[in-house]
Amino acid sequence: MPDVSVQYPEMRALILEHLTRLADPDWRASNLKEQGSVELDFDDLVNFLYDTSGLLNDPRGALGFTLGGLDEVEAVQRLRNAFEAAIEEGGLSGESPGTDPLWDLIGEEAATVVGVLSARGFEGGNPSPDAGASSP
Questions:
Q1: How many CB atoms lie within 10 A of CB 42?
Q2: What string of DSSP letters covers the chain?
Q3: Are 27 and 21 in contact (CB under 8 A)?
Q4: Of 35, 42, 18, whose CA–CA distance to 97 is shortest?
Q5: Per-residue pLDDT tens for 45-101?
Q6: Which residue, among 51, 96, 97, 105, has the nearest Cα to 78 in the 3D structure?
């Protein structure tokens, strides 16, 4: 299946913003706490990734909506798997913000998704022909 343009580039931008934060170990350590930062807490993060954006509920279903290619779907699926494994372990909560090995794996997978999404930009689909071209 070829890459596709996304229908909701604004939601894609919000997803990228949330995942960029999640990928940052310092941000995780200081913000993912119950009643922690007013910026974004554990419940808000999980709610956004699963419910608001639907990203982690059904990564394949996000193709064409907020994801622009199968590589993005696969990267998000790995992030979903990391979340679910951590939840099954019972160690993923706002009580263990960003300093838990389970969060480290989630952060690594989030960084991978950020890289894959950033490669295509906010519109998804194929990068523009000018992307990555250097100016003379």
A1: 22
A2: ----B-S-HHHHHHHHHHHHHHH-HHHHHHH-STT--SS--HHHHHHIIIIIS-TTT-TGGGBTTTB-SHHHHHHHHHHHHHHHHHHHHT--STTSTTTSHHHHHHHHHHHHHHHHHHHH-SSBSSPPTTTTPPP-
A3: yes
A4: 42
A5: 888 999 999 999 999 999 999 999 999 999 999 999 998 888 777 666 555 555 567
A6: 105
